[in-house]
Design goal:
The chain is α+β, with helices and mostly antiparallel strands. Helix content is about 35%, strand content about 10%. A two-stranded antiparallel ribbon has the order 1-2. The radius of gyration is 20 Å and the shape is extended. It has helices at about 1-5, 20-25, 25-30, 70-80, 85-90; strands at about 35, 45.
Length: about 100
């Protein structure tokens, strides 16, 4: 499919598995693989920002969150839901 899209001059790229991502020659050459502690307690491999600017090293602050890990904080802190509203959503199994 990528070959057909490229022939039509449509920007595209393959969708890689994690194994393929970490084995990619460009990922290795750019030295962007980092290991971070995940909120689950495990150490995970992540890809750092490949863009290198002179004043910003492109630091990583955290690994990707678990599904729903920040739901309550976002609903409360960003959208202003009350504790009662959050409790209701929890009882209804919305969150």
């Amino acid at each position: 499919m990528v070959t057909r899209l490229e022939a039509l001059k449509i920007g595209c790229g393959p969708i890689n598995t994690l194994k393929e991502v970490f084995a990619d020659p460009q990922i290795k050459a750019r030295n962007v693989v980092r290991e971070m502690e995940h909120s689950s307690g495990a150490t995970v491999k992540v890809i750092a920002n490949p863009v290198r600017l002179s004043k910003d090293a492109g630091r990583l602050s955290a690994a990707a969150p678990l599904l729903g890990e920040h739901t309550v904080e976002i609903l409360r802190d960003r959208l202003g839901l009350t504790e009662t509203e959050l409790a209701t959503l929890g009882q209804q199994k919305v969150i």
